[in-house]
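ok, trying the design again with the full structure, not the truncated one.
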């Protein structure tokens, strides 16, 4: 049985492709909430959605909005490479300022973010309008403040937004910030992770982009790596996404999964931990991608608004389930490390789900050719995470005292790292090096891949200052992914240990302590 609900699905035999001659459902004028006295409009609303709201116009809007309500806090969680302030807002009733206050309320914490790619602006406009409705008494959105704590980061990449009239994907350096969630080399994402995700520990994080396939107005995806808790993604697939489908259909919009397909199969977005929604999954929260396919700015803004609001409503109505599932993911992560059990997927791929997919495709329309919308049924749904390589989970990883850059990367995530206060001899597992290769990865000209030859058990002397990274911690899934040298996003790959990796023979200087041992060690305090 399919795990998803599609809107307006045709009843036709599996595998059949139909050409739809009917146009998309007609929509009336976009039904925004009535603007109440004293509340501001966005620049895009003021210009009839002819152009998006610029960075400084956004700040003017946010300040005006803060001046119109007592149910919003406004602040900055960091600055970009070019010095632009990164805004965030908090909405709740009673209004909170600190994470511990939000936790004390015992409600879901939801983060809504947009514009990590500078030229992708559509859903950001809907998000800013939703911020006004969250602050406006009497709206459906405002009623949610009694049940959910909401943080909004409406612009993650203002440097990319302002790089040109149309913006650019990367930041001021041209770096794709949605591939920086493990490296955390750039302040826009490092500050977002450090001051929003790590500090507040939200239950749900939505990351809004432009992309995906027509004829849909909103496309989505949740964490898709094998090592994130599968139930977090199934909650999206089985319950949240069908509610989004239904809410959008009520206004004549369409929604489906990111990214693209043909008459045979549908393919989704990447599974790497460096991607925002997957990173959030590795932190044991529900990471959700929204993408806006090509459409008018107001039309897309409204679709994004509906999607954001629907998730907030779900979190309010299913608060105990959402919080309970996230808490279980966090507890299980700690338990898996405390008495080491289970394997770590170091390599993976997508395979077909156990159920088929039905969806729409737009064909033609280029060079003046006719454009058709076709319905595909019974296609392969290439979304299922399939592990192709495993390694056993250790109680702790041990890094040489010289590995300061690797440890700094771990600390930027809020990972607990300890340091030996006395020398010790330990029986550890170590990977032998069969070979080393290099590849271009974003701004890393020589990202390093290790071919592991085998595993050797060895009695090793570790001096004072050696780093110990336990897996029995809140971010234990991320710890394992970053310290296993065969994954796509580890400290070796991102060049933090180049000086200590043997080019031939020898062992990888990341040792695995497979059983609990009492150690004279102290927690490292992040700078």
């Amino acid at each position: 049985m399919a795990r998803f609900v599609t809107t307006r699905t045709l009843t036709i035999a599996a595998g059949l492709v139909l050409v739809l001659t009917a146009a998309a459902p007609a929509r009336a004028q976009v039904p925004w909430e009535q603007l109440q006295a004293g509340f501001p409009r966005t620049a895009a609303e003021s210009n009839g959605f002819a152009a998006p709201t610029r960075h400084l116009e956004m700040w003017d809007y946010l300040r005006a909005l803060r001046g119109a309500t007592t149910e919003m806090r406004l602040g900055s969680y960091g600055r970009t490479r070019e010095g632009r302030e990164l805004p965030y807002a908090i909405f709740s009733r009673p209004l909170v300022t600190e994470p511990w206050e939000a936790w004390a309320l015992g409600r879901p914490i939801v983060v809504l973010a947009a514009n990590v790619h500078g030229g992708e602006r559509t859903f950001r406009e809907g998000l800013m309008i939703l911020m006004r409705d969250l602050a406006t008494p009497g709206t459906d959105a405002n009623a949610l403040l009694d049940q959910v704590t909401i943080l909004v980061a409406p612009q993650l990449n203002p440097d990319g937004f302002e790089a040109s009239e149309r913006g650019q994907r990367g930041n001021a350096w041209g770096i794709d910030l949605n591939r920086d969630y493990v490296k955390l080399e750039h302040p826009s994402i490092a500050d977002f992770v450090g001051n929003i995700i790590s500090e507040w520990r939200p239950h749900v994080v939505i990351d809004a982009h432009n992309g995906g396939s027509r004829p849909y107005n909103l496309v989505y995806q949740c964490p898709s790596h094998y090592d994130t808790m599968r139930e977090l993604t199934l909650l999206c697939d089985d319950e949240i996404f069908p509610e989004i489908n239904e809410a959008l259909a009520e206004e004549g919009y369409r929604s489906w999964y990111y990214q693209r397909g043909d008459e045979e199969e549908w393919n989704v977005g990447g599974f790497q931990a460096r991607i925002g929604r997957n990173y959030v999954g590795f932190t044991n929260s529900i990471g959700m991608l929204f993408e806006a396919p090509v459409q008018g700015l107001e039309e897309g803004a409204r679709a994004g608004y509906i999607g954001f609001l629907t998730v907030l409503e779900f979190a309010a109505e299913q608060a105990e389930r959402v919080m309970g599932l996230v808490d279980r993911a966090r507890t299980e992560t700690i338990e898996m490390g405390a008495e080491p059990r289970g394997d770590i997927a170091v390599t993976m791929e997508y395979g077909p789900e156990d159920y088929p997919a039905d969806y729409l495709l737009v064909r033609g329309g280029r060079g003046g050719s006719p454009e058709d919308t076709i319905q595909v049924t019974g296609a392969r749904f290439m979304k299922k995470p399939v592990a192709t390589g495993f390694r056993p989970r250790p109680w702790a990883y041990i890094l040489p005292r010289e590995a300061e850059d690797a440890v700094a990367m771990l600390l930027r995530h809020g990972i607990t790292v300890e340091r030996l206060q006395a020398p010790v001899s330990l029986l550890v597992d170590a990977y032998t090096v069969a070979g080393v290769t290099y590849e271009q990865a974003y701004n890393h000209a020589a990202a390093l891949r290790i071919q592991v030859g085998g595993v050797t058990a060895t009695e090793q002397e570790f001096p004072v200052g050696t780093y110990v990274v336990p897996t029995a911690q809140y971010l234990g899934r991320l710890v394992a992914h970053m310290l296993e040298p065969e994954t796509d996003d580890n400290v070796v790959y991102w060049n933090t240990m180049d000086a200590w990796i043997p080019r031939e023979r020898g062992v990888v200087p990341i040792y695995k302590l497979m059983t609990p041992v009492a150690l004279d060690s102290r927690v490292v305090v992040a700078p």
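Keeping the full-length input from now on. The CA atoms of residues 108 and 323 lie 6 Å apart.
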